Amino acid sequence: MTDPDTIRVYDTRAAEYAARFQGAPDPAQDAFASALPARARVLDLGCGPGHMAARLADAGHEVLATDASAEMVRLAGRHPGVKAQQATFDDLGTLPPASLDGVWANFSLLHAPRDRFDAHLADIATALRPGGLFHIGMKTGKDSARDALGRSYTYYSAVDLTARLDAQGFEILEQSHGAEAGLAGAVEPWITLLTRKTDG
């Protein structure tokens, strides 16, 4: 994410975002966390205030949490055991190949421009070890738009998203759909997928 207006929203409303979503039950978190090997190396991509990163660190995993928002990184870095740093999706290409056991990207890559999305998926695939886990959450729809707060979103249909994941060598293990009101208040449909990088 490099859109300055989107980053500005997260910088100015980080505390509100953290309070809104802290401690909310999430079956996708349970599925991802339980499928990781012991002492896994995990990237929380677009970590926000670091709730998931903290959970993974508490479970004994080595966690790197990244976000384009400096204020979100500050909040994430307050959790014990979480290494938090400011970075954009374009920095994914600097990760060492086959260095990660898992990547958690929960409603973060929806801020990536469409013309960069496949490249980001490819970088994630490169950084994961064979058999590594990749969770992705996205809002579903079509085209691109800004929400009432000014954040930039790119939408995909479930069919389009699964095809793009398949093209990068991800096997879909679990898939969930729903609709929920986000920070801007609008109820929007979403999809989450737990995938595994294939050996091929």
Automatic annotation (TrEMBL):
Molecular function in Gene Ontology: methyltransferase activity
Residues in Methyltransferase domain copies: 42-132
Highest rank taxon of the organism: Bacteria
Keywords: Methyltransferase, Transferase
Gene Ontology biological process terms from the UniProt entry: methylation
Residue spans crossing the bilayer: none
Protein's UniProt name: Class I SAM-dependent methyltransferase
Organism per entry: Arenibacterium halophilum
